[in-house]
């Protein structure tokens, strides 16, 4: 018996809901029939996929593996069906957009609002992530689109904009002292930085090597929100893109100055899965994303490249 879509769909829904009863009601399939399908899967694979308990079912380690693949396959099939049936004027379907965490506060809301206004039948999901996670999600086709760093994205990605980098400190750290900070001086600050897998850390280490300097890293913290909290607590300073600190600076929660001599920025691109034709819904969301990026560029958040 080969794996088939029906059995994968039944198994995935049982695993997701944690209950044969709830899955039976939602799928409109009798519980005994669902049990037979799951048993047939387990016999075919020679592995137990679900542990039955008095309170429902618990997915085994093997079941988790099958669930992950089943969800990806079922989503791909759904997208194929949507792409076949959708009408050009009223696109429908699911679209997954990944955005670099530091850009999300500025970019996500206007994209969601514009998508809801123009295409209410498109179900747009926006997810934050670091550069490596976004690349992995594009490779596995979890995301249909991703705004990511050029150093991490696929070579075929489309350049979007350059975002200037800022030295960031607690309130009053830079206010009234200086309008900018040289890169050489910034590298000597007591810096809170993420691990080496992150784009800004990679960029700063590259610049330090060029200048023959060592980065003065006092703490390693994953996550923009945690880094900013540590700065407010006086544990150090950091380097971030403009979007990550813009609102905090306006509210007086943090202070920031742009890096100069040379001006330091990072390039953001639009990444998409290769050899996977996008649906009409994905194309429309891409157009909305590009339009919002251009508008925010005119407001000074970044320098657009197209």
TrEMBL record:
Keywords: Activator, DNA-binding, Transcription, Transcription regulation. It comes from the Bacteria. Gene3D superfamilies: Periplasmic binding protein-like II, Winged helix-like DNA-binding domain superfamily/Winged helix DNA-binding domain. InterPro entries: LysR_HTH_N, LysR_subst-bd, WH-like_DNA-bd_sf, WH_DNA-bd_sf. One of its GO terms (biological process) is regulation of DNA-templated transcription initiation. Residues 3-60 form the HTH lysR-type domain. One of its GO terms (molecular function) is DNA-binding transcription factor activity. Pfam families: HTH_1, LysR_substrate. Transcriptional regulator of the ttuABCDE tartrate utilization operon. Belongs to the LysR transcriptional regulatory family. This is HTH-type transcriptional regulator TtuA.
């Amino acid at each position: 018996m080969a794996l088939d879509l029906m059995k994968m769909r039944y198994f995935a829904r049982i695993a997701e809901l944690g209950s044969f009863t709830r899955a039976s009601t939602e799928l409109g399939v009798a519980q005994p029939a669902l049990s037979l399908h799951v048993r047939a899967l387990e016999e075919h694979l020679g592995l137990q996929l679900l542990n039955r308990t008095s309170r429902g079912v618990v997915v085994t380690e093997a079941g988790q593996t099958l669930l992950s693949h089943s969800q990806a396959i079922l989503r791909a099939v759904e997208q194929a069906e949507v792409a076949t049936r959708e009408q050009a004027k009223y696109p429908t379907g699911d679209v997954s957009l990944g955005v670099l965490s530091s850009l999300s506060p500025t970019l996500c809301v206007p994209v969601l609002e514009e998508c809801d206004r123009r295409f209410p039948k498109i179900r747009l999901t926006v997810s934050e992530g670091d550069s490596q996670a976004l690349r992995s999600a594009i490779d596995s086709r979890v995301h249909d689109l991703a705004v990511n760093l050029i150093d991490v994205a696929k070579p075929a990605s489309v350049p979007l904009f350059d975002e200037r980098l800022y030295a960031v400190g607690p309130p009053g750290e830079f206010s009234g002292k200086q309008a900018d900070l040289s890169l050489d001086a910034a590298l000597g600050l007591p810096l809170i930085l993420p691990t080496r897998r992150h784009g800004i850390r990679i960029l700063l280490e590259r610049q330090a090597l060029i200048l023959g300097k060592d980065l003065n890293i006092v703490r390693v913290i994953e996550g923009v929100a945690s880094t900013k909290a540590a700065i407010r607590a006086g544990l150090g300073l950091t380097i971030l893109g403009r979007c990550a600190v813009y609102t905090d600076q306006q509210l007086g929660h943090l202070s920031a100055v742009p890096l100069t001599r040379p001006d330091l920025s990072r390039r953001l691109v639009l990444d998409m899965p290769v050899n996977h034709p996008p649906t009409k819904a994905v194309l429309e969301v891409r157009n909305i994303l590009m339009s919002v990026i251009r508008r925010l560029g005119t407001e000074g958040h970044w320098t657009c490249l197209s």
